[in-house]
Amino acid sequence: MKKVILYTDGACSGNPGVGGWGAVLMFKGAEKRISGAEAETTNNRMEMTAVIEGLKCLKEPCEVEVYSDSAYTVNAFNEGWIYSWEKNGFKKADNKPVLNEELWRELLRLTRVHNVTFIKVKGHADNEYNNLCDKLATTAVKNFKA
Question: What order of strands is seen across the sheet that includes strand 2-14?
Answer without folding.
Answer: 30-41, 17-27, 2-14, 62-68, 115-120
